[in-house]
Protein 1
Amino acid sequence: SDTEKGGYPFYMLKEIDEQPAVMRRLVQTYFDENGQPQLDKDLLAKLNEADRLYILAAGTSYHAGLVAQPIFEKLAQIPTEVHLASEFGYNTPMLSEKPFFLFLSQSGETADSRQVLVKVNEWGYPSLTITNSQGSTLSREADYTLLLNAGPEIAVASTKAYTSQIALQAILAQALGQKRGVAAAESLPLKGQLGTIANTMQSIVDEKQEMDDLAKKHLATTRNAFYIGRGYDYAVSLEAALKLKEISYVQAEGFAGAELKHGTISLIEDGVPVLAIITDERVASHTRGNIQEVRARGAQVITIAMESVAEADDDIVFPDVEPLLSPLVSVVSTQLIAYYTSLNRGYDVDKPRNLAKAVTVE
Ligand code: G6P
């Protein structure tokens, strides 16, 4: 109903707007008064015994796992692999001696993920579910649960669950890293960073008209679109493309920028929108090079950049945050671009054709 939507035309827009509050709630829930992450001690002890972390998920949650992979490796120095649950079940990789399994699932009901958890329990390996749904199947069947507390997510296209999954994984990585004495975890002011990120997210959702304008200008009638990014921006480009595909039916693909020259550039023709995400200073100049290459072939380029690597004519620029956590911010603009593209094309944003919020069949 309209009251539940709080005056919003669609749940998706409401849920995008809720992200700053969701970040703040996570900080309140999972940090103590000294600003240190506070998590179940048994969970941390079990994780500390592990020699490798296996993240299992589907869809948008899989993309949240891809963003978290370098966060776990840098902050907790635990080797981390991210797998599509649907592939892992049948194509199980060689496991390490002491694996720990992390299931990421907004709904906690995804059958593809559950079939892996059933096997993990048969094997007797420890597991954690990070979910937005207390008492869900994946939560009940895993050894441990961490709740996102993001409030119900109604729109089929996931937004606040994705960002809260990333933030909660970062909190977990820092807690584990501190336990292991990893300098990067001890020196990162994560609580303060997440507060800054909440403010930066707020400034982006306050400027949503900009994203509406960009969607109208570049995505109103196109049949396809490309997202490019390197380093931390690559995983975001995959999620940005998925969001656009799901609700606007624009055929979209996310690419690692360097791969353009290995194939994708053949698809670039006059007028094709290419959205570039640029936050990672290690690779920013290379992404700029890719932008020139696609522009030279007629692409319409939209840039989303972090201030320290931004240029004068970038379309969306946001203030600097810890680079590892920049996906939390850069993705918000892409969520809004997908939202407005769907809205402007006249679709039911919250209920895209052929898709379900939770898929309980394999
Ligand atoms: C469905 C939804 C997606 C979601 C995926 C995984 O396909 O349409 O939005 O990302 O399931 O869902 P989960 O609840 O496991 O995160």
Protein 2
Amino acid sequence: MYRLDDALSGGRFFLNSYVSLIKINRMKKLVVLTGAGISAESGISTFRDHDGLWNNHRVEDVATPEAWERNPSLVNDFYNQRRKQLFEVEPNAGHHALVQLEAHFDVQIITQNVDDLHERAGSKNVLHLHGELNKIRSSVDPLLIYNCEGWELKLGNLCPKGSQLRPHIVWFGEAVPMIEPAIEIASQADILVVIGTSMAVYPAASLIHYVHRSIPKYYIDPKAFPIPGISNLHIIQEKAGVGVRKLMDELLT
Ligand code: OAD
């Protein structure tokens, strides 16, 4: 026979132990903001480096809704070429190292990239801020999104509402629908890692301001710089492949 208060205190003991166990086992949330630089070692051009895409193409000609209105063929060809190239490249050491970090952290990637190299490397949680190359969508209804079969979207391929299908890319001047969930994720970070981005494009670059000032932040990029107003920022001036490895050494020792 047990007394009621003995049974209750025993129950409380097990409950407290269980809660402690959950706390110990709760992995820290590692939020990673990536840009074109993480895919550079896979052979995909960045945008603003000397050999970058925006040095050979004018943004106004290929990455705005006005360009699509004016010359859909030019815009479509630009993204068809990007999509075609995606079939020819592979994830690199930087992408793979981020997957390995999932064994130790709750890793959430927010990427500005439209490639699928994080997913192909095996990352589980990837949020695309600027759209996805392998998807296409209706020109009249942004919610009608489809997988692109193969690399080529043809003019004349229509959505069920009869409009031309367009690349599922957030162009300059368009709203960034995924920014709200991205802010939510950034504000919950225990550690923030920024990789391979010039931090020149908003609102993506503003995400770092949603991370609490006491939270450690790492910026991996050969051209990484101190970001005004951001404290606790550790700069790793390396390419992604080497830089993420160094980050792992630091976080795991
Ligand atoms: P940028 O081209 O602006 O910046 C690329 C960054 O990658 C630079 O800071 C480089 O120093 C760095 N980098 C180059 N090689 C690297 C390597 N091997 N490892 C690590 N870093 C390296 O590209 P983003 O900042 O991603 O948007 O550009 C943001 C947005 O601007 C893009 O998503 C795109 C573009 O216009 C749209 O098209 C909507």
